[in-house]
C-alpha cells in the first residue's frame, strides 16, 4: 500500500515526469497537459495526470534529495506500475562550457550517498540511464534545436558542500552536481523500469552565478518539452 501517494488505481499514467519541486509539477500540468487532474496532495507533493499529444502522462513532485526521491519512485514503480520515469530538475554546472540555463542529460550518476552502501556493501554499483530513453532524448534534442549536453552527473547528499567534493567529481568528468538521479537510476534497475534525468543548469558552481527562484520554478521549459517529447515515444 502506498503511503505518500494517495491515488486510486489507474490514476497514475505508466509514463511519469518527476520534478523535485511540487510547484513545478503543477506548472507543467497546467502548461503542457490537456485536462490535467490532481491525484495527489499528500504533504503538498502534487501529482497530476493528463494527456500530451494524445498520450497519458503524469507528473509527480518528489522533493529534494535521494531519500525523498526513493520514497516516491519506489511507490510509483511498486504500487502504480509506472514503466518510464524522467526526472526533470535543476543542476549546478562544474564545466566552463556548460552555462546557466543549459540543458543536461545524465547518462550515468555518480553518488556519495550511503543508500548505495546499504544495498551493495563493498560492491560498487554504477547507476545509469535507460539507453533507449537516453537515445530518444538526444535525438529529440537535435530535432527541437536544444543544445543538450550528455554526460555524467553527481548526485550528492549535501547541498552545502564544505568539502567541495565537486572538484573531484569534475576531475572524473561530471558535468554538474544534483541530488536525486543516482537513486532513481538504481530503483529503475531494481524494478526493471526505464529512467532518465534531464536538467537545466540553475547555478554555476565554479563561476558563482545563479538563476532566480522564480526562474527555477516557472521557466526552464526546454527540459520540460524535451522530457515530454521523449517519454511519449513507444
List keywords for this structure.
about 230 residues; alpha/beta; globular
| Share of helix, binned | 25-40%
How is the biggest beta sheet arranged? Answer: 5 strands, mixed, barrel
Number of helices: 8
User: What are the secondary-structure elements, in order, as H or E?
Assistant: EHEEEHEEHHEHEHEEHH
Radius of gyration: 16 Å
Form type: globular
Going across the biggest sheet, name each strand in turn: 5-8-7-6-9
β content, as a range?
25-35%
| Through-space gap between termini | 29 Å
Mean pLDDT, all residues: 95
Strands, count: 10
Give an account of the 3D structure.
The structure is a single chain. α2 runs parallel beside α6 (181-191) and α4 (131-144) crosses α8. 34% of the residues lie in helices and 29% in strands. It has eight helices and ten strands. It has a five-stranded mixed β-barrel. The chain has 234 residues and is an alpha/beta fold.
